[in-house]
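anyone seen this seq b4? input:
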Amino acid sequence: MGWLLDTSIYSQVLKKRPILECLRKWEEMGDAQCVVSAVCLAQVEWGLNYAANERLWERYRELLEGRLEVLDVTTVTWRHFSRMKARQRLIGQAVGDLDLLIAASAVEHGLSVATLNKQDFSRIEGVSWEDWAI
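predicted toks r here
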C-alpha cells in the first residue's frame, strides 16, 4: 500500500521550521510510494498565492512542483466523499470537506493518508492513516 500525503506533510519542505520526523519518514518511504491529491495541491498553491511571496514560489517550484503524482478528484472520489460526509454528520463529528476529499481519494486508490492531522483523520471511518509526526 502506498501513501497519499496530506497537505500537512506535503507542505513541510516549504516551512521555516519543518517537522524533521515528517521529512525523514517521507525520505524513508521514497517518492515512488507517495502521491498527493489535487486537493492538496490546490491548498498549497492557495497558500502560495495568498502569501504572494516569490521566494516561496521558487522553493515550491524547486522542491515540490512535479515531484509526486497528483490524483485527480473523480466521480468515484465524490461518491466516497458523499458517504463519508453523511456519516460524519450523522454521528455528530463533522470533518472539513477538504480533509474528507483527501480521505475519499485515499479510499478510492487503496492508499493510506500520511498526516499530522490525526484529530480529523482518526474520526473518518474506513480510511487508513498514519501520524508522521512520531
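The mean pLDDT is 95. The radius of gyration is 15 Å. kinda curious what u guys think
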